[in-house]
Write a structure and sequence with these properties.
Layout (H helix, E strand, L loop, with lengths): L1 E5 L11 H18 L3 E4 L13 H11 L4 E4 L2 E2 L5 H14 L4 E6 L4 H6 L4 H20 L3 E4 L4 E5 L10 E5 L3 H9 L3 E4 L6 H18 L8 E9 L3 H22 L5 E2 L2 E2 L8 H7 L1 E3 L1 H14 L3 E5 L6 H14 L15
Parallel strand pairs: 1-2, 1-14, 2-3, 3-5, 4-5, 5-8, 8-9, 9-10, 10-13, 10-14
Antiparallel strand pairs: 6-7, 11-12
Length: 345
């Protein structure tokens, strides 16, 4: 099982300074490569201080300039927020400037308040995403493309520059049904059970492998990545502290994901949560070493190819770097050998 470090760009203290914040993200990307992580991932969200990255392709290019081999995955770009006629060219340029290390993770968007502010209602985002994805793939793969649909209508055009390699795609999907159908279409998958149980995670992974097996040889290269908020705690007291930080993170995440979307000057309000820390512990990977390894063994046995570790939970950058190193030294050596997504040569 390979490991990915999520450059999740959590920014709870909005006085910290964006220059310092993104310098921290770059330092973490370089550390991930040095520590043996196979990849880093970069989110896309706008107008808020959670997953705060409005330009993931720019960030991918910057990370590529600071590293040599690590794969760079968008997690995920929100296609309904972009015009595919211009975005296709941006993707091609990013793929070139990252020396073929870019994997384009795509999704429909998750936060209703964000989509409303961008005038793309969440209720319409699925249909717009589906058409946008089809348009993007056509523009990347073909010349002289024309289109007649609900969201795109244009006469024959060719995106320039042309790709020098096929762009690698990864689909973000949560429901087992969506995972199954996306896999059948030939996409790598990234998923997460969010605050759900291991039973939900096992259903997600099973749906992927069912579809992959049905594809036979044509699906052998496909992989599934699982995202989890995590922390390798030094002891029970440290675990309790980090669960408190994770709970504060989710008090903001829930606000924009399932809550009222209260945002002031770009900062998401921290709202009370009904879930106790004890219950939260059951849904996250915040635990001591033996517990951490035991949980990862479940993921590996289920057939997870890559684990996306979200370690920015409100700690200082130095503490996050130390946690990355602890996981690399104490946990990662226990897991290896599964099929990887190979960056293009």
């Amino acid at each position: 099982m390979e490991f990915n470090h999520f450059l999740s760009s959590y920014y709870p203290d909005t006085t910290y300074g964006a220059d310092r914040h993104y310098s921290d993200m770059l330092e973490q990307a370089v550390a991930a490569e040095c520590l043996g992580y196979a990849s880093v991932s970069i989110p896309e969200h706008h107008l808020m201080n959670i997953l705060m990255n409005p330009a993931p392709l720019q960030m991918a290019i910057k990370v590529a300039g600071e590293t040599r081999r690590i794969k760079i995955i968008t997690s995920v770009v929100q296609l309904p927020l972009h015009d595919m006629r211009t975005y296709a060219g941006e993707v091609i340029l990013a793929e070139i400037f990252t020396d073929g290390r870019l994997i384009l993770g795509v999704g429909r968007g998750a936060f209703g308040v964000e989509m409303d502010r961008m005038e793309v209602p969440i209720e319409e985002s699925r249909k717009k995403f589906d058409e946008s994805l089809n348009v993007l793939q056509a523009l990347l793969e073909q010349e002289n493309v024309s289109w007649s649909g609900k969201y795109y209508n244009f006469k024959k055009l060719t995106v320039m520059p042309r790709p020098v390699r096929p762009v690698q795609f990864m689909m973000a999907a949560l429901s087992p049904q969506a995972i199954y159908h996306s896999t059948r279409r030939g996409f790598h998958i990234q998923t997460t059970p969010l605050m759900d149980s291991n039973e939900k995670m096992l259903e997600q992974i099973s749906a992927f492998h069912t579809a992959k097996n049905e594809l036979g040889d044509s699906g052998k290269h496909l992989t599934i990545s699982l995202s989890r908020v995590c922390w390798l705690a030094k002891d029970e007291a440290d675990k309790h502290t980090k669960l408190g930080l994770a709970n504060d993170y989710y008090s903001r995440f829930d606000n924009v994901y399932t809550g009222p979307g209260e945002i002031e000057s770009g900062a998401i309000a921290s709202l009370p949560r009904a879930q106790t820390l004890k219950d939260l512990e059951q849904n996250l990977l915040v635990c001591t070493k033996d517990e951490f390894i035991d949980q990862l063994a479940i993921y590996k046995d289920a057939g997870v190819d890559e684990l996306i570790l979200s370690q920015n939970i409100g700690t200082s950058n130095q503490e996050t770097l130390e946690n990355m190193q602890s996981i690399a030294e104490e946990v990662m050596p226990h897991f290896s050998g599964l099929e990887k997504i190979e960056a293009a040569e």
